[in-house]
Amino acid sequence: MGFLTPTATGELDHLKVFVLQQLAQLRTTVVGLTDDQARSTPSASTLNLTALLLHTGPVAVYWSASAAAGPNPPQLPDGVEDSHTDALVDDPRSLDEVLAFFDRCVAWTAENIDAVADLSAPVPTPPAPWIPKDLTHWEARWCLLHLVGELARHAGHADIIRETIDGLGAFELNDLAEGVRGDAERR
């Protein structure tokens, strides 16, 4: 899906392409890396790229499943649970295993968004200390917009980590991911 978000028709389709584009950008940050590079923590952050992928995949599944299930609680596939990113930094899985899991999460996310029947449906708020006690629900639309924001934040973080590893930025990585000859191939 390249750097530019594809055009879409209708609100739900727009939300879907923005979610999937941000997920694609996250995946692009590991193009051409070794397992050790993907697990490295080269920046001031304590996070690495594999931890970000292992976190954002389940986050996308959770919020898209919430939007699809509203007004009921979301049903998540086995093996999909959100873990705090700090707990994922030392995950021993290879980059190929992380990407296989991430790709399954992306597929589940796309299916969930396709299953959203009503963007105005109330979605129960999850129990979390940062959610005001009087806030009991938000709209399915809010869940998907929140997801775009969360993914964009993490994609920017992943971009910085990747640039610190080898100097490659998003434009070069998109070219590499799409097989386009660019400056990255001449390095």
Question: Any overview of this molecule?
Answer:
The chain has a single domain (12-72, 93-175), classed as dinb family like domain (Four Helix Bundle (Hemerythrin (Met), subunit A), Up-down Bundle). It is mainly α and 187 residues long. It has 8 helices and 2 strands.
How would you sum up this structure in a few lines?
This protein has helices at 11-28, 35-39, 49-69, 85-88, 95-114, 140-166, 170-178, 183-186, and strands at 122-124, 137-139. The chain has 8 helices and 2 strands, in the order H-H-H-H-H-E-E-H-H-H. Residues 183-187 have low confidence and may be disordered.
List the helices and strands and how they pair.
Layout: H1 11-28, H2 35-39, H3 49-69, H4 85-88, H5 95-114, E1 122-124, E2 137-139, H6 140-166, H7 170-178, H8 183-186
Antiparallel strand pairs: 1-2
Helix pairs in contact: 1-3, 1-5, 1-6, 3-5, 3-6
CATH second-level architecture: Up-down Bundle
SSE ordering: HHHHHEEHHH
Helix content: 55-70%
Enumerate the strands of the largest sheet in spatial order, edge to edge or round the barrel.
1-2
What is the average of the pLDDT values? Answer: 91
Number of strands: 2
Alpha carbon gap, first and last residue: 24 Å
Strand content: under 5%
CA radius of gyration is 17 Å
Structural class: mainly alpha
Protein name: DinB family protein
InterPro entries: DinB/YfiT-like, MST-like
Organism: Arachnia propionica
Pfam family, one: MST
